[in-house]
Design brief:
It is a single chain. This protein has 229 residues and is of the alpha/beta class. The chain has twelve helices and eight strands. Strands 1-2-3-4-5-6-7-8 form an eight-stranded parallel beta barrel, surrounded by seven helices. Strand 4, helix 6 and strand 5 form a beta-alpha-beta unit. The radius of gyration is 20 Å and the shape is globular. The mean pLDDT is 94. Bound molecules: SN-glycerol-3-phosphate. The site of SN-glycerol-3-phosphate has 9 residues, from helix 8.
Amino acid sequence: MDNLRENLIHAISMKFFIDTADLDEIQEAADMGVLDGVTTNPSLMAKVGVSDVKSHYLKICEMVDGDVSAEVISTDYAGIVAEGRELVKIHPNITVKVPMIQDGVKAIKTLASEGIKINCTLIFNAAQALVAAKAGAKYVSPFIGRLDDIGQDGMDLIEQIRVIFDNYKIETQILAASVRHQQHLLSCMLLGADVATMPFNVIDKMIKHPLTDSGLEKFLADHAKMVNR
Ligand code: G3P
């Protein structure tokens, strides 16, 4: 990375992850230089019809220089630990995504003590985030869009976790998930989330504005008039 780009990016401290298992979307976002990592979940893997999960994760890891969350599907302690240990063999970028359940918390403690990066998922209140952080998770993933869906304000949760983590100097990163639109993203930045993971359509919408399109159209039309004179 050249120095100018490195310095500019350093100034933008919130990381952008893409929430998808679609390789074309990941490549597109990577090519735009906005990608710091990837999150997936079993629903996203199923959506793109992944048959060989491990080789799919490997392909993603080779495309992105950053953490790639791979979710376990076990719900018991021994199963989560065994899956986590297998997943991290795929590539050093793999971060094991573990659900916020009791066995999950125990597994986080074990895996984190082995130096394995953990993203604790399906976080819906600050107490859950605190427990995951104390167990040793690198990331906690509050699902802001799904809270909005049931009439709560997902951003309140980001704010509460930020205050708690700052009060007690907890280094676990807040990874805002279930991001549905640019306003979520901007609010996450205002509130100090460490990472936001978003579907490709949110990244795409960040680029677009009707006045940009109409402005460009006019510039090109005026240029054509000049050269065709
Ligand atoms: O990857 C977890 C999360 O981001 C899912 O989002 O849109 O299914 O609520 P969503």
